[in-house]
Each structure stands twice: as C-alpha cells, then as structure tokens.
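Help needed: design a sequence for this.
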C-alpha cells in the first residue's frame, strides 16, 4: 500500500517538488515514514532485505534538522503570505479569510496527512510557539478524527498524541476550558492515562477557583529583528505584476529595451508617473566599448535608493553553468554576528563562492558587471561571486548588505565597506521570492536572467538606510541568485564624492 502511494507520486509528471507541500512530504517520507515501514511488524516476511536496503541509503537521507526545517518553512510561508492552514493541508495556497484567487495553483494538488500536520504542529510546540502549534494540531486532530480506527504503519502519531499536545497548547495559551474538553476527549480513547486524568482535575480546579486567565487572541511570536514585519510581509504579498515601475518603457515599441510582459507594473497613477520621467527603460553602453555592440537593457526601477534592473544580463546556458559549478560546494548560508559569522533562522539558504578562475563563464560575467557598473572588480576591490540557492521556504529577512559596524568581518578585506550590490537571478520561481525594499516601499519579483543593481553607500561613504531589503520566502519553486559585492576602495575616481557633504 505504501509503495503504491509513493509510486503514484513519482509517476505523476505534474507532481513537482516546486510545490512546498510536496517537498515537505518527500522529506518526511524519506526521514521517518520509510524507517517506520522498514522496522514495522508488517515487514516481517522480508525484514532482512528491507533492513539491508535501508542501511545502504540511510546516510544520504534527510535528517531531523532537514525535516524540522521543512516544517518551519511551511509555518514561514503561512505567516508571510497569510495563508490558511486548513487550505494548505488541502493543497490550496489561499490567503486566510480572503476571496481572492490563490497565490499559487500547483499542477497537481497535494494534501497533507494528519501525521504531516501533527509533525508541523509538534515542531512549533517543542519551541513553545503555541500560536502555530494550535493551528496545525487543530488540523491534525480534525483529520485524525475522520480516519479514527484505521492505522498506517508509517505514521508516528495518533489522535491521542494530537489531542494531548493540542490540549497543553491551549492551556499555555490561557484557554483552560478548551484544554479541559480536549483532555476529556483524550480520556475517552485512553481512560487509563493517569497523567491526562491529573490534568483534567487540575483544569477543573482552576476553572472552579476562577483563577484561569481569560484567553485573548493568540499573538504571533515576533523577534526583535522584525520591527518592520508588517511592511515586509505586505511587500511580499503583493501579486506579481503590481509592483515596480512608474514610467514604463520609453520610445516606440521597436526601440523598447524591456518587453511589456517583463515590466513590473505601475506603482503610481498616471498623473503621478509623469512626475517621475526618469523611471523607464533605455539601452546603455555606459561609455564602455564592451557594451557598444550589445548595449545593456536597463530598466530604472527606483531613484532613491538608486535601483536598476538589467534584463537578459546572463544567458540560460551561463546560468546553468554557474549553478553547476556552485552545486557541489553549497553550504548553509551564514550571517555576520559581531566579529563572527554564524547560521541564523532569519537567513535560510545555501551558498557557495566562485573565483573568476573557476570557469571562463565566471570571468566573462565579472567583465560584464564591471562594464555596466563602471567599477573596479579586481581583487581585493570586490568579493568572489556568491551563488545562493533558496529552496523550500528559503528567505532572508530585512537586512543591509553593507556593514553597519566597524567590527564587521567585511572589513577584514581591508578594502572598505560594500559600496554596491549586483544580484543576478539565475532561475525563475512560480511564486514568492521577491526582493523587497522595506523603507522605500517597493519590491522586485524574480526575473530570470536579469541583474538587479543598487548603491549601498551614499557618495560621502555613509550607509544608505533606504537600502534595507529582504528576500521574500520562496512560495513555489527553486530560487538561484548570484551576488557580486563591490567595495569602496578602488572606486575613488569611478564614483567620486560630490561637493555636497550630505550627498
């Protein structure tokens, strides 16, 4: 039965792991469902062969960190895109309480099982996050009730487990009466459980004494890093095609650099757009002979901060080469923390660094970046090319690319702060993954093969606070980008300071 279920999933061409629910269920199946099958009593007839086969591949299978990370990714998507948990469990990516069309419609709808929902809720429960544990465990309880009496050997949890965890979640959230009713339901299925019987007595006593805290609306946990959470999430939720340009492409259609389907859509009404004549498209040579025969297709996205999108900056073949070079070296991305670098939940991705000597494609790309920016990329004036892969729920919460402290590891290069960023989109995504500029209040969706450029520092060397930006979580797909960070030193005559010390 289990084999037939798995076989059906793998034979369906529409069942793409771009779908985060399918990606989560695949990780869970490889980490826990198969071992449960292999070591179950039902496998007695061919136990030896199953065990031997499983041992051969065990080291290559996802671990606990992978599965828990996938569960956290689903909760992240739930939060940032305001998705309904019930909808997600049914395979629908619909905003909670909204009648608008789904944010993403997979080719094949994949629903989560009661055990899947229990695992997501349990990950939240184990960290004391009862806001999320209640939503997911409610769905688990609901699904377990529907299938009560039938048992799947791959499942690790049951209706009793879900009721137990959900009751305690409600207790911790202050809803004693609901915790009591769930505990009583638990005892209906397992009357001999003394611990839950003691909990029932405790809850009844609290309610009799009137000391129970009245349950208010559950609050989402919020780290101090996300003071701008509402603005960040609103930018991530904007539909593709409703963010970006004010002015559109200039000139007749035959002379436009970026086709109309690539435009990011109007941010302003038409009268307001006329006040921003500099936002538009143009062919740019930047005074560089390298660009004379093939000018850059420049789309001016924003004035302050200065943000530009260069369309068709890299070819499909070049993008695939860079992904292939980086693939074997990908490691969990780190962030600067004081004088050290470490992993962090607010940056979930894998990255690798490529020298320009790694391949002629990397060298050609560096030449192209130098041509469009007019900056000096020779070592140590720029960092190696960083290739980043954002998978299931991959994201990077609001941050600056430039260092905000002199103790930052960035200064070890002894070439000053990061003056500019070039970010190249190496892949397309089906939904999510936009680059959101928080204070400037705009976001740029993923445009395959395009390069996004912005200045991190003002001309006087101060950090530009308007460049606070974020990589929105990938809702569906596999996002690859290549970052080139350019430093101050070596650019003194290429981007000189102005006569105005405030500039």
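Sure. Designed sequence:
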């Amino acid at each position: 039965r289990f084999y037939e279920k798995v076989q059906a999933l793998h034979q369906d061409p529409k069942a793409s792991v771009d779908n985060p629910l399918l990606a989560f269920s695949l990780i869970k199946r490889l980490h826990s469902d198969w071992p449960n099958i292999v070591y179950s009593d039902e496998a007695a007839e061919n136990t030896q062969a199953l065990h031997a086969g499983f041992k051969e591949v065990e080291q290559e299978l996802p671990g606990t960190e992978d599965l828990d990370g996938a569960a956290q990714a689903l909760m992240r998507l739930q939060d940032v895109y305001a998705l309904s948990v019930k909808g997600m469990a049914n395979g629908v990516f619909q905003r909670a309480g909204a009648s608008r069309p789904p944010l993403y419609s997979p080719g094949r709808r994949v629903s989560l099982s009661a055990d899947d929902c229990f695992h997501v809720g349990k990950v939240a429960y184990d960290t004391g996050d009862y806001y999320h544990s209640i939503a997911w465990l409610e769905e688990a309880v609901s699904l377990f009730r529907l299938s009560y009496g039938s048992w799947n050997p791959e499942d690790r949890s049951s209706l009793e487990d879900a009721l137990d965890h959900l009751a305690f979640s409600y207790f911790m959230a202050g809803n004693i009466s609901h915790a009591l009713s769930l505990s009583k339901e638990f005892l209906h299925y397992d009357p001999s459980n003394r611990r839950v019987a003691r909990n029932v007595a405790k809850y009844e006593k609290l309610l009799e004494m009137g000391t129970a805290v009245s349950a208010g609306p559950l609050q989402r946990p919020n780290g101090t890093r996300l003071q701008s959470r509402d603005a960040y999430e609103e930018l991530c939720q904007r539909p593709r095609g409703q963010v970006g340009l004010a002015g559109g492409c200039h000139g007749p259609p035959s002379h436009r650099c970026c086709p109309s389907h690539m435009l990011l859509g109007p941010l302003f009404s038409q009268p307001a757009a006329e006040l921003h004549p500099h936002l538009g498209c143009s062919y740019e040579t930047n005074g560089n002979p390298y660009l004379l025969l093939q000018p850059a297709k420049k789309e001016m996205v924003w004035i302050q901060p200065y943000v530009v999108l260069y369309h068709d900056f890299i070819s499909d073949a070049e993008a695939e080469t860079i992904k292939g070079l980086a693939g074997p070296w990908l490691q969990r991305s780190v962030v600067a923390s004081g004088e050290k670098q470490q992993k962090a939940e607010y940056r979930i991705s894998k990255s690798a660094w490529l020298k320009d000597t790694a391949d002629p494609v990397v060298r050609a790309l560096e030449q192209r970046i130098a041509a469009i920016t007019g900056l000096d990329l020779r070592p140590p004036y720029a960092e190696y090319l960083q290739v980043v892969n954002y998978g299931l729920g991959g994201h990077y919460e609001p941050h600056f690319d430039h260092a905000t402290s002199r103790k930052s590891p960035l200064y070890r290069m002894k070439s000053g702060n990061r003056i500019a960023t070039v970010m190249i989109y190496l892949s397309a995504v089906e939904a999510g993954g936009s680059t959101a500029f928080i204070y400037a209040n705009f976001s740029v969706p993923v445009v395959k093969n395009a390069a996004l450029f912005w200045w991190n520092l003002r001309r006087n060397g101060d950090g530009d606070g308007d460049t606070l930006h974020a990589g929105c979580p990938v809702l569906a797909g596999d996002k690859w980008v290549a970052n080139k960070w350019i430093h101050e030193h070596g650019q003194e005559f290429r981007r000189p300071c102005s006569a105005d010390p405030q500039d």
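The chain has two domains: 1-209, 271-487.
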